[in-house]
Predict the 3D structure of the following.
Amino acid sequence: MRTAAEPVEVRRPSAVRALTTLLAVTAAATVVVDLLNYWYAPEQEFGLAVRTGWAMLRSLGFLVLIGHVNRGRVAARPFGLILAITTVFAVGRLVVPRSGVPPLPGLLGFGLLTALCAAVVALLYRSDAVGGHLVRHRKGLVIEGGTISWREVTPKRPPVTGWLLTARVAAFTYSPLMLVPALVAGGSILDGRLSAGPPVLFWFGAGIAVSYLVLFCTAFLMRDRRWARKLLVAVTLGVLAVDLPLCRWLLGLDGLIRDGGPLLAAALLTLYALHRATHIPPPPSAS
């Protein structure tokens, strides 16, 4: 048994190289802007530290996106879209203080990061060169004709639309967007508000359960099952019905805006993507 030689690496288009550079700059800007907002915040409390840490983790998301772009993965587009949208929301909720006007450095940093995220989405969806590059699936070991090769593995499932991929990626953000405010609310227990213990534990449990429900739904959503779409819509509405009232009750109006807003944006994007996704009929069977 022999091993196939690695294919010759083809030089990527200039638009793709520009996109990877832009993503690296955006990742660095995310860290700098988040630290800047935390530095200028009038109250450096536990909740702000949790939200800042979560926002800074998005810089790792941009690094992962660079890997997807370099490999030409199809999923780079929806991943980049939801990452850009939620990053703007995550940083925006850190800029506005509880009272008073936002500091000028924070506003400038937020404007810069918003422009970078908009440029990322524009390159992902408006550049023909980038679109022609993002056509590959994951690689794996393939044994064919006595030859072992490491190459692209074509999925066995039917082809899916980009909107279904967008709905899948957006739905995967439900769990972390629920767990972050639950962790913020957990700080009230440390401050002596013991009555918040049971609802906070329920919030954590709901956030973890949602991750498994979304994983189950999207597994069949990628196979374009109609019932999976309906189930994901039900999960989305259930997430909003649980998370938004808990944000209002345990975190107040400020928490509802800061933590409920990003989840609402992800839910609306999921529902819109499901609405736009067209059903792909199965190929006709050979007679």
Observations:
- The longest strand covers residues 139-144.
